Amino acid sequence: MSVIGLGTAAIGRPQYINIRQTANDRLNLKEFREGAWRILNQAYDLGIRYFDTAPGYGFAEALLIEWLEEKKDQEIEVATKWGYTYVANFDPQARQHEVKEHSLGKLLEQWRQSEQLFPYLTTYQIHSATFSTGVLENQAVLEQLANLKSEYNLLIGITTTGADQLAVLRKALEVIVDGIELFDVFQSTYNILDQSIAEVGEELAVRNKRLIVKEALANGRLFPNERYPHHRKLYDQLTHLARKYNVGIDAIALRFCQDNIPAYAVLSGASIDQHLTQNLKANQIQMVEEDLKSLETFSVSSDAYWAERKQLDWN
Ligand SMILES: NC(=O)c1ccc[n+]([C@@H]2O[C@H](COP(=O)([O-])OP(=O)(O)OC[C@H]3O[C@@H](n4cnc5c(N)ncnc54)[C@H](OP(=O)(O)O)[C@@H]3O)[C@@H](O)[C@H]2O)c1
């Protein structure tokens, strides 16, 4: 069973692409920051030791650097990324929240902050590698990542998002620099609705690569929502299983990921205390095979999944 890690995308900036069922009432930056600090402590107290961050997540990475200095626990493991810059300045009305740039210059610039995560930093990822930015063919970038890998003994990874994430992942698997496979870690979307990367799960395990599951709750779309009447049967089954195992739908959905694909970690994207506690109940249940299989039948095509994902707003 994979461990649950904490993703920090929603704790370092007030707006994020997901469905919030509770009002985002921490828009005062000071309170919002205190809330983020509390979540980090709560995650730690509840046993989480894997944290995922990025300079593109508002103040999340900088806050994590401060928090790690206070925690000083060698068991903590951190993964970060490069490639996105947060530009919304914590303004809820901002029209643009982040800018993507997969250049050598951006890699060198963001590394200067991220290296402060040592000695907890184990994993350095390209944030949302795609074919369109050409990053997997950018020799200067790939060589710099190979340098970091050998100099700091880092695991180098990519994160994938979008209908072609399986194809991007496959291409990354074949990248070799100086005779060595460059990428060790693949952080990809996997959940009950989008199970496309299951196809490569075993191969990653055999090749000793790490898979990290993100968006396990499909950004909140797995909770019953009248905007998505076509998922009604899934909502009914999740509600039934939640009652059966006496946990929330979130714990059922996370546990599905923990059991159904050989991942190193499954990320919780919770940004409020109560959600994190509920998410972690996934560790306390044991679903029977028949129930896991019943959830497998709800997968949709990648195109349909990502078309729906594109409709989500920053909120
Ligand atoms: N391109 C990339 O590299 C990339 C992209 C996406 C995500 N990620 C990583 O993956 C992590 C997790 O992904 P994610 O946050 O997008 O997705 P997620 O885990 O699929 O969804 C999180 C959403 O579910 C809600 N939620 C969680 N527990 C809940 C509960 N018990 N009741 C009601 N709502 C609940 C959260 O609400 P609250 O916010 O109110 O708790 C949030 O809106 C991120 O933090 C980030 O580290 C990386």
In short:
The protein has 315 residues and is of the alpha/beta class. It is built from 11 helices and 12 strands. The two termini are 33 Å apart.
Could you characterize what this model shows?
The protein has 315 residues and is an alpha/beta fold. It has a single domain (3-310), classed as Alpha-Beta Barrel (TIM Barrel), CATH 3.20.20.100. The protein contains eleven helices and twelve strands. It has helices at residues 29-45, 60-71, 104-114, 139-152, 165-173, 198-206, 232-245, 249-260, 273-279, 289-296, 302-310, and strands at residues 3-7, 50-52, 77-82, 84-86, 98-100, 121-126, 155-160, 176-177, 180-181, 185-189, 210-214, 265-268. The strands form three sheets. An eight-stranded parallel β-barrel has the order 1-2-3-6-7-10-11-12, surrounded by five helices. A two-stranded antiparallel sheet has the order 4-5. Strands 8-9 form a two-stranded antiparallel sheet. α4 (139-152) links the parallel β6 (121-126) and β7. It binds NADP nicotinamide-adenine-dinucleotide phosphate. NADP nicotinamide-adenine-dinucleotide phosphate (NAP) binds next to β12 and α9.
Q: What integer value in Å does the Rg equal?
A: 19 Å
Going across the biggest sheet, name each strand in turn. Answer: 1-2-3-6-7-10-11-12
- Beta-strand percentage range: 15-25%
Care to count the β-strands? Answer: 12
**Nearest-integer average pLDDT:** 94
**Largest beta-sheet details:** 8 strands, parallel, barrel
Q: Return the structural class.
A: alpha/beta
The CATH superfamily label reads: NADP-dependent oxidoreductase domain
CATH architecture call: Alpha-Beta Barrel
For the terminal residues, how far apart are their CA atoms? 33 Å
Number of helices: 11
